[in-house]
Amino acid sequence: MIVAEQKPIDELIRSLEGFKKIVIASCGTCVTVCMSGGEKEALAVQGLLEANAKEKGQDISVSVVDLKRQCDDEFIDDLEAELLDGDVVLSMACGVGVQFLAGKYADKVVLPGLNTTFYGAAKELGYWTELCAGCGNCLLERTGGICPIARCSKSIFNGPCGGSQNAKCEIDSEIDCAWQLIYDKLTAMGRLDTLLEIHEIRDWSTSRDGGPRHLRKDDVNLDDAGK
Amino acid sequence: METEKSNLQKMLEAGEFAITAEIGPPMSADGETVREKARELKGNVDAVNVTDNQTSIVRMSSIGASCLAQSEGVECVMQMVMRDRNRIALQSDLLGAWAMGLKNLLVLSGDHQSFGNHPGSKNVYDVDSIQFLQAVTNLQENGVFIGGSKCKAPPHFFLGSTTNPFADPEPLQLIRLEKKINAGAKFIQTQCVYDLERFERFMEKVRERGLHERAYIMAGIFVNKSLKSIQMTQQVAGMSVPDSYVKRFEEAEDKQAEGVEIAVELVKKLRTVKGIKGIHIMAVGWEEIVSTVIRQAGFLPRPVV
User: Fold this and answer.
1) Which fold has domain A2-117?
2) FRET partner for B89 with CA separation of 20 to 30 A, picked from B37, B97, B148, B203?
3) pTM over 0.80
């Protein structure tokens, strides 16, 4: 899933300065699961903004609109009236959701409430780690299901570098060395011999390096979409 | 195109025990400091590595500093890390470096930029060191760039890389060394050796794989100047410094003399390790001591091949 974290409340207060009627739009997908931009978090931000305004003697109103999914028209349109009933939308979705709303409503000010951090999963309660770089050409079949692009600090294909010690990365003792993990997994699978193959130079054009990406499926029609 | 081999290559091929040292370029545009360091080493080493923004601190480029040092009569090993340049820039610099007269190339991953003075920079790693070794080999032998186009006059560097016997997981570091040699590395410089026991074990496995016969392996040593410096060396990821050496620094009255003594001692021991064809001396922050270590270890005068 997409993991995100809330921007510091002071930053939100600064970016919302001057707006009187604030609508916070939460999102019910990834950012709810990672506890950063769901309805619960949106209500908490609402409380903080109201308390701050009260303290400063400012007259503002803050409401929360809980969108099931902020990157899809069908989940937005039903709540459009409430969503647009203010002079700013504070989107608590990932960067996709923020841009979706900003693009959908040409004259609306839409501000980001989160920093979108990575594609990952919870390793333990309240602790998420990055797992995928979205590079557009998956190589996990060769690395025991552990991505060196996302999980090695140097994205090395024929790793590890010389900084791997005690299974940890040289840059941070909280980061597991991806190549140690790959080594362990391939050992367990009895496929260590594959590591002697030199992983060839990568074509990064499937990644962001090839410019903004898009995907069209010509065979998709309205029937398939269930409409 | 017939080109003369580098001095380092000729030394190693002639079966001479080779000595290399290291120059860290200045954090400035002052070429004179490089020239001075080169003059100090002239005649005492077979070649000198010129580092490429080591520890991710912005310094004079390895190409520029290498050219300066060579103009003082010291052959250089240009280092290239994969951290800062994509394949376009790397290959372009290869062409320029060769045209400027550099003949040895050492390919390495590079320290992560979070260690240096520009921690907010992008890390490139478009290609990794093994992929680049393979690409340079293909360019040199077949005249083909990474992208597939032909190069009419390719370079002919004496190509090398590094290995770290003290990094984990050890079996994979060995596999990686083999991959580097398969990719075309002709000489290998190791991470600094203090832990002789572990190094011996590593070399035994290197010999089991026959790697010592496929590339010239040069053992790295570090010359520490003070207790603080060896304590810092001990903290570096991927380094193994037994406490006994730290203790020697603690107890020594003349720390600098102790540093030289330890270095000379290590050199003499490493020289006898089967499969070791040379020594690479790193004396970061104390480069002026290198000639003393070489002299005391009995490596002077250098043979001429």
Assistant:
1) Rossmann fold (3.40.50)
2) B37
3) yes
